[in-house]
Design goal:
By secondary structure, the chain is α/β, with parallel strands linked by helices. The protein has 11 helices and 7 strands. The protein has 2 domains: about 190 residues, Rossmann fold, CATH 3.40.50; about 60 residues, no CATH class. It is about 40% helix and about 15% strand. InterPro entries: AB_hydrolase_1 (IPR000073), AB_hydrolase_fold (IPR029058), AB_hydrolase_sf (IPR050266).
């Protein structure tokens, strides 16, 4: 049974629904996308996925399966958009959820933005991410993040608040250069809890078989923007190329100097690319 999700909204105009990733990160880590709601823009609805933000926390076996997230999002669109099609954006794990919704319910999706969304997981993806990280270990912030990760070891933090702080500590692994704006965003992350149960389920049950889950992208018929940073070790250029080939009507975009959190370390470039895609899609009435 779908959970009733809450959301945070910015602006007014055509509805752009944004599903965060993590999984389990506090949804407001996507706040930089609120810039898409600039005057004359659109309503940006930042959905709070199950167990995060103000949405209820599920319990029981399979509570964090990809299909459960998709069911929640379908129910939200049917309720909040009256069943009318929306522009749908998903970041990282949220891109997986958005792709499942677009594949299963094309009647609810006008266009799709896959933002830093992995096309595959398992050993191949983990090795690529490790190589990206090691290539940058001479950067002091990256070295400190790797040390924080090593100190944590294989155990999960004891509670959601501690996981939120760890996420903030390792942010240098997921961004390009640590600018003052990125550091300010990182400081906000440290104050927000992250759902340990959701992350554990993804790491142990979903990530090893992510290739199979993302095969559903081949069923997406709506126009799709596939965008990520060239410094993204988890969903970078190789993932962009594979997903663009998978979807029927894909447009690739790789942002120079940006990492997995490209909406935070390259917000102007990312929002400009999304605006171009959404505006062009509106002009040609797809």
């Amino acid at each position: 049974m779908a959970l009733r999700l809450t959301d945070t909204r910015y602006g007014s105009g055509p509805l752009l629904v944004c599903h965060p990733g993590g999984p389990g990160m506090h949804p407001h880590y996507l706040d930089p996308l609120a810039a898409l709601a600039a005057p004359g823009g659109r309503t940006v609805a930042l959905v709070h996925p199950r167990g995060t933000g103000d949405s209820p926390r599920p319990h029981g076996p399979g509570a964090y399966r990809p299909e459960r997230y998709a069911e929640d999002l379908v129910a939200w669109i049917e309720r909040e958009a009256g069943g009318r099609p929306v522009d749908l954006l998903g970041h990282s794990h949220g891109g997986m959820v958005a792709a499942l919704v677009a594949a299963d319910r094309p009647d609810l999706v006008r266009s799709l933005v896959l933002l830093a969304t992995p096309a595959y997981g398992g050993d191949e993806a983990e090795a690529e991410a490790e190589a990206f990280q090691q290539a940058r270990r001479a950067e002091p912030a990256v070295a400190a993040a790797l040390a924080a990760l090593a100190a944590q070891g294989d155990d999960y933090p004891p509670d959601d608040a501690a996981l939120g702080r760890l996420v903030a500590d390792v942010i240098p692994l997921w961004v390009g250069p640590m600018t003052p704006a990125v550091r300010a965003w990182q400081a906000r992350l440290a104050r927000w809890p992250a759902n340990t149960d959701a992350l554990r389920h993804f790491n142990e049950e979903v990530f090893p078989r992510l290739d199979a889950v993302m095969e559903r992208a081949a069923d997406v018929v709506r126009p799709a923007l596939v965008i990520a940073g060239d410094l993204d070790g988890w969903a970078g250029p190789g993932h962009v190329a594979r997903l663009t080939r998978s979807v029927a009507r894909g447009t690739p975009e790789v942002v120079a100097g940006a990492g997995h959190m490209c909406h935070a370390d390259a917000p102007e470039a990312v929002t400009a690319a999304i605006r171009r895609f959404l505006d062009h899609k509106s002009v040609i009435h797809v």
